[in-house]
Structure formats: C-alpha cells, structure tokens
C-alpha cells in the first residue's frame, strides 16, 4: 500500500500533533476573545468554571489559504506556503511582522509561564476563486492540485489540517451574516477590488468580487484564528477582518440582553470573535515581483505566463523564463537600490530558495556578476529547491484516495469549530437557533 510521510492510507490523520511553544501575552481585549474561543472549543457554558488564566497550556489557532486559480506560483509559495511549513515545524515565523511592523520574534519573547499548542488550518479557498470566472471543468482539478501542493511543500496532515473552503458550508453562511454588518464604504476602499474592477469594468464583474474581503473575514473568524500568515498584498484584508470583529463584538456582544441570549443557548458570554493578527513575512517573501516588471507583484492574473514561475514548472521552462526575465544594463547585482527593482527581486528569490545562506554570503558570491552569469545560477538554485516538491507532488497527486481522505478529515475538523462559531454568531444576532 502506498504510504506518504510515514502515514498509511488506511489510518486516520485526525489528531493534531501540535508544536508546543511559549505563548505571547496578548492585550486584554484579544485575550478575552481567545478565552471565548477556548471556552466554546471546550464545550463550556456560562455556568461552567472557565479559568483558563490559570492553565499552563493554551491553544493558538493559525489559519491561512490560497486560491486554487491556475497554477500556484513562486509568490504563493514564498509569501505563504513556505512560511506555513516553517511555522508548522518550528512553531515560529523567523521573519514575520504584524500589521504595525512589530516582529513576532520580539512579540514572542514575552513568554510568560503559559505554553501554547498551535492548531494549524490551511484552506484551499475555492469560493474565492469563483469571484472571477472559472472554467467548471478546471476548478476541481486546480483545487486538488493546490491541496496536493500544500502537502508536497511540507504541510503535514498529522500536524495541520488541510481542507477545501466549499466543503464547510459555514463559510458562505457566516459571510452573509457579516455582509450585513459591514458598511459598503469599507469595501469601496479595497484596493484589490478597485484594481480588478477597473481592469474588467464594473458591468462585467460579479458582486462576489466586491464582497470577497467579507468572505475572507468569515474564513478567519469562523476558526477564531489568532494568527493569519499572509503576503503583504493581504494587509488591507486583514485590517478589514479586524475592523469587522470590533464592529460585530461592539454591536452585538454587549449588555444584559446579549448575556441572556447566551445563557439561554448555553453559551459563554464573551464577545463572539477573536481579533486576528496578521503575520506578514518579510525578508524576500512578502512581495515576490513579476519577472517582466520588478515594480508589479507576481500574480496569477497577469496574462503573461513569462511573468511568473509556477511551482510545478519543469526545469527547462524555469531556465527559459529566467533567461528571458527583465533586468537592467547596470553592472553587478545588488539589493535594495530603488532604481533596480528587478535586481532586488531576483536576489530575493535567489536568497529565499537557499534558506541556509546569509544575505552577506549571497551578496559576496554574486555582487560582481553580469546578468548572463547570475541568471543560470538563479535558475539552477530554483530548480534544485523546487525539484523535491515537484517529486512529492507527483506522488501525492497519484494517490487520489489519500488526498481525499486528508481533505475529508480536514473538513470534519474544520466544521466542528466553524459550526460552534456560527451558532454563537447567530445567537448574538438574535436568530432562533436549535439548542
Ligand atoms: P492569493 O490566492 O492571491 O494568494 C495566496 C497567498 O499568497 C500570497 N501571495 C504573495 N506573496 C508574495 N508575493 C506575491 N507576489 C504573492 N502573491 C500572492 C498572498 O499574500 C497570500 O498569502 N484572499 C486571499 C486568500 C484567502 C485567505 C483567506 C488568506 C482567502 N481567505 C483567509 C488567509 C486567510 C488571496 O486571494 O490570496
């Protein structure tokens, strides 16, 4: 029987094998929200004794996702998936910052005497993909491809849950509830909507593209996620999710009527949602730029295939794309010269695929090189880094039964949490909910 990451197909992957790390003391507000998550996760009610402050071990939830549109590219991999793997394996993000630019290395120094059990959820966000037209014949295939790539890149289903967004219907339902609490003008400010609708014309884009950030907030809030590792381009979406939390908790989770509704439903009376923190990776991965224009982001929606390296590109394609990628006519290769965005981008990529090497070491090696000398070096480093991922991908993809089992178990674990949050949300809003 085919086995993968030491796991037999016939075995369940349900239980978390979490990394226990030290817990960062949170500000009072978000700490009390986490208590809520913990209380409902433990099935506690208002009348049960909830004294998590005294506990030595706390749960911290991590959630992130990638859209399964087309092929995942180097930006998705370096900006997101590679970071998830690092976090899953070490409990740390070596170079991530929060929305205020504070490093997690710094934030996590303040250990306190509490330990943390990380619960990681990684989602393939197929319902986000349909905010722009998708070929129905391709959507399922690219969803499975993305999930297989998560595993191939190192997401281990015994340590992290992998699931498909549309398999947990609570996402759509919470998104609707949150749509009704989110002011229009908050969404009108969203840069991604402005950009995409300008390109396509508002008469041809769906309403889903407009409310997409609310669906993303629902993805995060359903799981009471404490931390959300993403690339720099998701900053505004994370800010919005935090604003929605504050608005909802303020509007619906205060006062005696709220407490009464909670008690009647057997729920604790904490505000419903946890305020998520963004983890934005720095040092090269936060913004991987296009190969044809060092000033724009590498993106799936760029019609020029040569603008991106896909994680599954064969070696010859990678060589060719790097050979043809945009450079400049200045001598040498250097970092952080605003006049030379392509040079910075290519060096960032070169460094990111050689995580064992320091910036100084890399610069020493390449600084005097001509592009013709540096480009083959970069191409071979990329190929060497991606080759084992591509090999594992082929194995995972060939075992459909295993992949479906991972996704089924991921969805079951996700649904259990999502349903509790959705119920609490409905109680807060005054819906009649079954006991
Ligand atoms: P998506 O699918 O566009 O991208 C997935 C992840 O990849 C990162 N990324 C990049 N990082 C660096 N350089 C780039 N050129 C680059 N391109 C993409 C993104 O920052 C992201 O982390 N809305 C999200 C998906 C989403 C989500 C969520 C994420 C939906 N729900 C909940 C986190 C939590 C998106 O479209 O990402």
How many whole angstroms does the radius of gyration measure? 22 Å
Task: Give me the count of strands.
Answer: 9
Identify the overall geometry: globular
Please give the share of residues in helix: 40-55%
Order of helices and strands: EEEHEHEHEHHEHHHHEHHEHHHHH
CATH topology of the largest domain, anyone? Rossmann fold
| Poorly predicted spans | 1-12, 17-33, 46-50
CATH architecture label of the largest domain: 3-Layer(aba) Sandwich
Give the domain tally: 2
Can you list the ligands bound to this structure?
tryptophanyl-5'AMP
CATH class of the largest domain: Alpha Beta
What distance lies between the first and last C-alpha atoms, to the nearest angstrom?
44 Å
Question: What does this entry look like structurally?
Answer:
This protein has about 425 residues and is of the alpha/beta class. It folds into two domains: about 300 residues, Rossmann fold (3-Layer(aba) Sandwich), CATH 3.40.50; about 90 residues, Tyrosyl-Transfer RNA Synthetase (Orthogonal Bundle), CATH 1.10.240.10. It is about 50% helix and about 10% strand. Strands 3, 4, 6 and 7 form a four-stranded mixed beta sheet that branches. Strands 5-9-8 form a three-stranded mixed beta sheet. It has a two-stranded antiparallel ribbon with strand order 1-2. Helix 5 packs across helix 15 and helix 6 packs across helix 9. The N terminus is likely disordered.
């Amino acid at each position: 029987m085919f086995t993968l990451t030491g796991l037999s197909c016939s075995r369940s992957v349900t239980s978390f094998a979490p990394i226990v790390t030290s817990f960062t003391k949170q500000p009072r507000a978000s700490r009390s929200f986490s208590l809520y998550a913990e209380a409902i996760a433990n099935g506690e009610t208002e009348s049960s004794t909830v004294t998590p402050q005294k506990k030595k071990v706390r749960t911290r939830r991590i959630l992130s996702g990638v859209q399964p549109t087309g092929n995942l590219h180097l930006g998705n991999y370096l900006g997101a998936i590679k970071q998830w793997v690092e976090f899953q394996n070490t409990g740390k993000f070596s170079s991530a910052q929060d929305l205020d630019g504070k490093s997690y290395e710094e934030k996590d120094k303040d250990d306190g005497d509490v330990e943390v059990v990380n619960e990681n959820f990684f989602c393939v966000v197929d319902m986000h993909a349909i905010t722009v037209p998708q070929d129905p014949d391709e959507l399922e295939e690219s969803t499975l491809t993305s999930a297989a790539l998560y595993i191939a890149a190192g997401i281990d289903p015994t340590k992290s849950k992998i699931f498909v967004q549309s398999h947990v219907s609570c996402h759509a339902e919470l998104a609707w509830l949150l749509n009704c609490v989110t002011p229009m003008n908050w969404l009108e400010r969203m840069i991604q909507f402005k950009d995409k609708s300008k390109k396509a014309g508002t008469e041809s884009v769906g309403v889903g593209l407009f409310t997409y950030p609310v669906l993303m907030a629902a993805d995060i809030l359903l799981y009471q996620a404490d931390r959300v590792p993403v690339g720099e381009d998701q900053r505004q979406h994370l800010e919005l999710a935090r604003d929605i939390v504050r608005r909802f908790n303020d509007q619906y989770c205060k006062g005696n009527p709220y407490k009464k509704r909670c008690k009647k439903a057997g729920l604790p009376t904490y505000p419903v949602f946890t305020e998520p923190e963004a983890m934005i990776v720095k040092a090269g991965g936060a913004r991987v730029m296009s190969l044809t224009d060092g000033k724009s982001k590498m993106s799936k929606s760029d019609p020029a295939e040569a603008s991106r390296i896909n994680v599954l590109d064969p070696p010859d394609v990678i060589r060719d794309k790097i050979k043809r990628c945009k450079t400049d006519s200045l001598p040498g290769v250097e970092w952080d010269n605003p006049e030379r965005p392509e040079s910075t981008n290519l060096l960032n990529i070169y460094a990111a695929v050689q995580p064992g090497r320091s910036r100084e070491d890399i610069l020493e090696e390449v600084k005097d090189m001509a592009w013709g000398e540096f480009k083959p070096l970069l191409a071979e480093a990329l190929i060497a880094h991606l080759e084992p991922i591509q090999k594992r991908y082929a194995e995972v993809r060939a075992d459909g039964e295993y992949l479906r089992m991972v996704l089924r178990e991921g969805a079951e674990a996700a649904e259990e949490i999502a349903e509790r949050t959705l119920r609490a949300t409905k109680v807060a809003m005054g819906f009649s909910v079954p006991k």
